Structure formats: structure tokens, C-alpha cells
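Residues pack. One example:


***
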Amino acid sequence: MAKIKRAQRFSGLPEGRRYVEVVTDLRTAPLGDQSVAIMGGAVADMVLHEVLVAYRKCLDRLAATGFPSTIPSGFSRKIDTCAKFALFGRWVDEDLNSIREIRNAAAHGLEVFSFDDPEINDRTHKMHFAASRFRYEGREVPTTSRERFAHDVEWVTDLLFEDARRRANGMRRATFILAGGVADASQDFRVK
């Protein structure tokens, strides 16, 4: 029997379907909770792959740094590799692990997955970038667990993409990607 192949990188998506369209679907498409959780995890996993590729290309002395010559295949291993080389701060690390755990609950659990589950709801309340102070101009503040999850996936992946782009272009790293208490909790962060 032939293996069913699905896109594992953004370049493998059909024409006209790229990162922006997939992330928009997390917020707006009529998808079930399980689909949103699995797609959100897949988006974060793909973005981490892109980040690791960008950093691997930027590092002059791979052997000296111990940076892997091949990209790890698992979501957890990608998170761990990025954390080991301080490619992001504590907030991004914690939120990526929350995204991974929510994705795993949706993909591997025997129960029907719901963002209304008290454990899932509690986890999304603890996600740093799901907080109302991190928002895009003109959008409502996320109020439900599902909205917070989709919002957090978008913020974290946008931060990772922006930092990788800056790094690939020889620019200074965006300090916000290293947040773990850097941002003032009373400050609003709005992106147009």
C-alpha cells in the first residue's frame, strides 16, 4: 500500500497555500477543535524546521558550535535543539511546548478532543503570547481557549519567522524573540 503523503514543509503546499493562508485558517475556517490543534502544531513544527535551516546556513563554524548538520525530525527535538542553541527565550520555549502538548492530546488521545476541556483551557490561559497585550491591530482580543491557541500559534511563528529572516539577512536579532520576562506585562504590543 502506498504511503499517504501530506505537505511537511511550506514549500510542499499547493500553489496559493502558504503560511499566511494556513494560519488564517486556524482562526477563521470552519474547522473542528481537533483539526485546529493538529494544524497549529504542524504549523509550529514547519516553522521550526525553517528556522533551523536558516540558522544552519548562517553559522560559519558548524563543527565548532555543535549545531546539527541535519534538522531533527520530531517537533520536540526541534524545540530542544533551538533551546539548546538559545535561538529563542523562555516564553517561546514554553509556548511551543504547550502547542506541542495540545497537538499531541488532539492527535493521540482516545477521548474526543475539545478546547473546552479544563486542562486544555488552563494550558491556553498560561500561554504567554495568547495574552491580550499581544495582538494584531484591528483584531478582537482572544477570549476562548481555541482563539487563544490560534492567536499564540500565530504570534510565536511570526516571531520565529521574523527572527530567522533578520538572521538570514545579517541583521541583529530581534530581542523580543528572547523574551522571558523582557516585556513589561503592562505594555500593549500591537502589530498592524
The radius of gyration is 17 Å. Residues 17-179 form a domain with the Four Helix Bundle (Hemerythrin (Met), subunit A) fold (CATH 1.20.120). The chain is about 55% helix and 5% strand. Residues 105 and 146 are 14 Å apart (CA to CA).
